[in-house]
Amino acid sequence: MVKVWEPNKSYDRLKLYVNFCTRSTFRRVRVSGLENIPDDGYIMFAPNHVSTLMDPLMLLLAVHGPVAFGARYDIFRNPKIARILNWMRILPIARERDGIRSVSSNFETFDEIVDCMAHKVPFCLFSEGRHRPERGMLPVKKGIFRVCKLALDRLGGPVYIVPVGLDYQYFFRQGGSVDVRIGKPMNMEDYMPRGEVHGEAAIYHTLCDELQARILSLIGKVPERKTGLVPLRALASLILLPLTAATCILSFPIWLPAALLLRKFKDKAWSHTVHFAFHLILPIFIPFHWMFNLLWNFTKDTINDITK
Length: 308
What we know:
- This protein has two domains: 9-216, Glycerol-3-phosphate (1)-acyltransferase; 230-307, no CATH class.
- It contains twelve helices and eight strands.
- The protein has helices at 9-24, 54-62, 79-87, 100-104, 106-118, 143-155, 200-216, 230-239, 241-250, 252-262, 271-281, 286-307; strands at 28-32, 42-47, 68-72, 90-93, 123-124, 159-168, 177-182, 186-187.
- Strand 3, helix 3 and strand 4 (90-93) form a beta-alpha-beta unit.
C-alpha cells in the first residue's frame, strides 16, 4: 500500500470537490484559529468527535494542505476497502473491544503515524476513541499521547497537539451552521521529556485532563437562536410556503433516499454524513436541498416558538 504521506494529485483534485460538498451540507461553515497551527515541528490534531465522517471532513475543509487520520480498525478488515481507506490517508486504530491481537497491530500503525508526521503531514486522532452526538466530551484516552511521545523520541524537534472544537448547530436536523475552532497548541516537550519517563501514568492522566479542558473550551458556543418577532416570522413562513414546497419537491432525490436509509441506522449520528454522501453523488440537486433546509429550518423554528 502507498504511504499516507505521499503526494497524490488525484487525491488533491478530489479533495476540492469533497470540500465543496462538505460546505454545501450546512447553511454556514465558519473556521477560526488557523493562526494557532504551528509553522515548525510536527503536528497532531485532536478534535472532539460528534458526527462520524463529517468530523474529519470538517478538519479537511478548515486546514490547508494534507491531513491523515486514524479510524476504527474493524472497517479495514476487507482488503479492498482497506486499500481505498489507505489511499484516502486513513490508518486503522484498534480498540480494546477489537481484541488483543488487533490491538497489537497498533504498534505498526503508530510507526506509520510517526513516519507521516516526519514527512510534515499532520495527523489527526479523535482522542475520545468513539463519537457521541451531544455537546460535551467523553473522557480522553491516552493513546494520542503515546503516539506523540513516540514521535518526540524519534523525531526530536517540537511535537504539538492542536485541540480542535467542532460545534454543530444541529446534530440530527439538516442544514444549520458549523464552527471549527482551532485552539492553542500543546507542546509535548513542555509536558513530557524525551526518553524514559518516571511516573508516566500520572503524566498521561494530567495530559488527558488538560486536552479535554482545552477542547471543551472551544465547543458549546453556538449562539442562541433569536426567538422574537414571532408574528412577523409566521407571516414570512406563510408567504414562503410555496417556495419551501417547491424546493422540497426539487430536492427529493437527496432527502427522500437519505431519510429512508437513516431509518435503518440505530446510530443517528450518521445523519449529516448520509446527506453529505447524497450531495457527493447527486450534486445537481445541491442548490435545491440547501435552500429547502434553510426554509424548512426557518419554518420549523417559527412553529416551535408559536407552540411554546
